[in-house]
Amino acid sequence: MRAGGLSFIMLTYIFMLAWLGVTAFTSLPVYMYFNLWTICRNATLVDGANLCLDLRQYGIVTIGEEKKVCTTSESFIKMCDSNELNMTFHLFIVALAGAGAAVIAMIKATSLSSGEETDLKMNLYDD
Predict the structure, then answer these.
(1) Which residue, 4, 16, 65, 99, could crosslink 61 as a Cys pair with Cβ 3.0–4.6 Å?
(2) pLDDT band at residue 1, thresholds of 50, 70 and 90?
(3) Closest alpha carbon to 20 in 117, 102, 82
(4) Cα(61)–Cα(68) distance, rounded to whole angstroms?
(5) What is the pLDDT of residue 124?
(6) Can you say whether residue 84 is alpha, beta or left, with left for phi > 0 and alpha for psi between -120 and 50 degrees?
(7) Who contacts 50 (Cβ-Cβ below 8 Å, separation ≥6)?
(8) What is the Cα–Cα distance from 71 to 63, expressed in whole angstroms?
């Protein structure tokens, strides 16, 4: 009986660590979108500004490659004006919130299971 409880605690802890990684990876697109949205907003405020987003700072491309997305390109302007950009932001926020809620639930489950296991051991040794 006790081995089952301990294995459940360890399994919950392992899943919690995995979901913590998922939460970390879902926060990166939210951060990237926020930077991209800021560049789009600033490009419309300042006429003639050449603002660039370097993909090397996110680890998407290697340091040797130089991949930049600049506001002077026509595709960047179309991307800033599209509705899909805002939709992806909302989807990334929902994914981040869901992953965060799962981590919080697993932390609570682990702490409750640990407390129950401790109570079980204390009652076993009292008898």
Answers:
(1) 65
(2) very low
(3) 102
(4) 10
(5) 67
(6) alpha
(7) 70, 71, 72
(8) 22
CA atoms of 115 and 105, how far apart (whole Å): 15
* Gyration radius from the chain CA atoms: 23
pTM across the whole model? 0.60
| CA distances, 82 to each of 19, 77, 90, 99, 123 (Å) | 32, 9, 14, 27, 63
| Dihedral over alpha carbons 77, 83, 89, 95 (to 10 degrees) | -140
pLDDT digits (tens, 9 = 90+) for 24-61: 888 888 888 888 888 888 776 777 778 777 877 777 77
DSSP the chain: -HHHHHHHHHHHHHHHHHHHHHHHHHHHHHHHHHHHHHHHHHHHHSTT---EEEGGGGTSS-TTS--EEETTSHHHHHHHH-HHHHHHHHHHHHHHHHHHHHHHHHHHHHHHHHHHHHHHHHHHHH-
In tens, the pLDDT along 77-95 reads 888 888 887 788 888 888 8
